[in-house]
């Protein structure tokens, strides 16, 4: 359905036949919510945006559920240093090889 907000009630009614079809794996509303949240987080959106999109009352509610999906400080620290040092070390190694 295009242009219609997919609410929990609407999803439940639309998916009812699919969930009960023989051999169907069954998708649940919260499976889609978790997938949606994980895609937003992986795309780099901040907690307030994810909170609003999911309709959570507070950012704390969002973080209590999804904090493990955001990169931690260790990941960001490593990426920041790598972005500066890896090219510099590579340039230094190439310069030393040229001198030899």
Record keyword descriptors for this entry.
100 residues, mainly alpha
What is the helix/strand order?
Answer: HHHHH
Gyration radius (Cα, Å) is 22 Å
SS summary, helix count: 5
Helix content: 55-70%
Please give the number of β-strands: 0
Shape field: elongated
Largest sheet, in brief, is: none
Strand content: under 5%
Q: What structural class is derived from the secondary structure elements?
A: mainly alpha
Rounded average pLDDT: 81
Low-pLDDT runs: none
Descriptive overview:
The structure is a single chain. The chain starts with 7 loop residues before the first helix and ends with a helix. The mean pLDDT is 81. It has 100 residues and is an all-alpha fold. The relative contact order is 0.07. Helix 2 runs antiparallel to helix 3 (47-54) and helix 3 packs across helix 4 (59-66). The protein has five helices and no strands. The longest helix is centred in the last third of the chain and has 27 residues, at 73-99. It is elongated.
Topology diagram in text:
Elements lengths: L7 H12 L9 H14 L4 H8 L4 H8 L6 H27 L1
Helix pairs in contact: 2-3, 3-4
Summarize the structure.
This protein has 100 residues and is mainly α. The chain has 5 helices and no strands. The relative contact order is 0.07.
């Amino acid at each position: 359905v295009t242009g219609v907000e997919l609410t929990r009630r609407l999803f439940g009614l639309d998916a009812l036949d699919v969930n009960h079809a023989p051999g169907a794996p069954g998708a649940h509303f919260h499976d889609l919510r978790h997938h949606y949240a994980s895609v937003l987080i992986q795309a780099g959106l901040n907690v307030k945006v994810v909170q609003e999109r999911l309709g959570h009352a507070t950012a704390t509610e969002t973080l209590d559920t999804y904090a493990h999906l955001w990169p931690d400080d260790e990941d960001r620290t490593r990426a920041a240093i790598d972005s500066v040092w890896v090219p510099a070390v590579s340039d230094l190694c190439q310069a030393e090889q040229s001198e030899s």
